[in-house]
Specification:
445 residues, Rossmann fold, 2 domains, alpha/beta, 12% strand, globular, 18 helices, six-stranded parallel β-sheet
Length: 445
């Protein structure tokens, strides 16, 4: 690392190819360019290619627009694979692998990339896409002359650039036949100063799935503890604090809430469960993790009905649509389930998200997508905080929000708001596993 804490860039760096300019691919391409590499990025969506050529970032990811602007001369984006193959030998595969109806990963985009590359002893396919264990072996059988290196990504949406530049660890998996390519991939990451796990392909593929499955398990576990705490009068925030101080457990992913979502956890947990089932093993723990997460999303409905009775005709505001703050990603977002269930109960649903509004309009037919949080809260019988955007904490809850809402009721799905301040303002507050604050009548001005 350099004296200012940034990765040290060396001269004559190897050119890199990136196939797929989605969230993972674009972060990978721009960050390697930031490290000084010439990066040749290919995507089949012409509109995306044209936007990137203009310096426009088609996704919401902090720091990415600035890095793209700073490295436009080193980043070459094209819809044609040929110039990428001509200029780069290490080809990072960053295409989507969504789940199929059976629960297996759809590898059609990966297979298309392999077919397009063809037989080439000069190139290695470096797999960033999350794929089932055994994918690398199958590709190696199909294309014996194509090198294969497993290099799973561990980026978090909203902090992806920082995660790339300052990783906890890097995983590089390859067989003996691709050892020289694996050496070159590992060398790319040496300026980052992180531990590099060199292993076989199958273990590298499993590390990614097992890591996300374990984190999802921690989330479902603390949500179960939260639900029991609500019944017994304990406070899950205090419980998690006490648990997290044990170095064997740690505090990460012990925040109770209304369930995980996004593009990684639901897909990877289901994929690992499906892989186990395909092999003849019933992964009972992951079955429970998935069930708990689905039930957790629906407990919010019961909390609203406890205060309002029937939800028919009531206006309910959902604050947040994206599955987490600082992203516009709504894949597997809890908001989608909540909105559908609320409308199924007869409620009128209003939603607001600082950056995911357009996506909400596409995915939530029947819900009113508002231009501000205050507009969503105006006349609402209840508010549900779904995504912990900082601006929701800064709303004037005791003043304008209290005056605008028809009923002062907040279900805080992320334990994010100041429950004592809300109680002082006369709100009925429902958190997740939190000891209930007594509702206090506001003092006259």
């Amino acid at each position: 690392m350099s004296s200012n804490g940034q990765p040290r860039v060396t001269s004559e760096l190897e050119p890199i190819g990136v196939i797929g300019a989605g969230w993972v691919g674009l972060v990978t391409a721009v960050c390697f360019a930031e490290l000084g590499h010439e990066v040749h990025c290919r995507d089949i969506v012409r509109e995306k290619v044209d936007a990137l050529a203009r310096g426009e970032v088609p996704i919401h990811e902090p720091q990415l627009p600035d890095l793209l602007e700073r490295n436009r001369e080193r980043l070459h984006v094209t819809a044609d694979l040929a110039p990428v193959l001509e200029r780069a030998e290490l080809l990072f595969c960053c295409v989507d692998t969504p789940p199929t109806y059976s629960g297996d990963a759809d590898l059609s985009r990966v297979e298309q990339v392999v077919d397009e590359i063809g037989e080439s002893g000069d190139h290695a396919l470096v797999m960033k896409s999350t794929v089932p264990v055994g994918t690398g072996r199958a590709i190696a059988r199909r294309r014996e002359s194509l090198g294969y290196v497993a290099n799973p990504e561990f980026l978090k949406e909203g902090t992806a650039v920082a995660d790339f530049m300052h990783p906890d660890r890097l995983v590089v998996g390859a067989g003996d036949e691709a050892a020289s390519f694996a050496d070159r991939v590992a060398a790319l990451y040496e300026p980052l100063g992180a531990p590099i796990v060199r292993t076989d392909v199958e273990s590298a593929e499993m590390i990614k799935l097992a890591s996300n499955a374990f984190l999802a398990t921690k989330i479902s576990f603390i949500n179960e503890i939260a639900n029991v705490s609500e019944e017994l009068g304990a406070d899950v925030a205090e419980v998690a604090r006490g648990m997290g101080l044990d170095e064997r457990i740690g505090p990460q992913f012990l925040r109770a809430g209304i369930g995980y979502g996004g593009s990684c956890f639901p897909k990877d947990v289901s994929s690992l469960k499906q892989l186990a089932g395909n092999s003849g093993y019933h992964f009972q723990l992951l079955t429970a993790v998935i069930e708990v997460n689905e039930l957790q999303k629906r407990r919010t409905i019961g909390k609203l009905k406890k205060h309002l009775g029937s939800l028919v005709g009531h206006d309910v505001a959902l604050l947040g649509v994206a599955f987490k703050p600082h992203t516009d990603d709504v894949r597997e977002a809890t908001s989608l389930v909540l909105a559908a269930r609320l409308m199924g109960e007869g409620a009128n649903v209003r939603v607001f998200d600082p950056v995911a509004g357009e996506r909400a309009a596409e995915l939530l037919p029947g819900a009113e997508v508002c231009r501000s949080a205050i507009e969503a809260l105006d006349g609402a019988a209840g508010a549900v905080l779904v995504t912990e955007w900082p601006e929701f904490r800064e709303l004037d809850w005791a003043g304008e929000v209290r005056e605008r809402m028809a009923t002062p009721l907040v279900v805080d799905g992320r334990n994010f708001l100041d429950r004592e301040a809300l109680a002082d303002a006369g709100f009925a507050y429902e958190g997740v596993g939190r000891r209930r604050a007594a509702v206090r009548t506001p003092s006259p001005a």
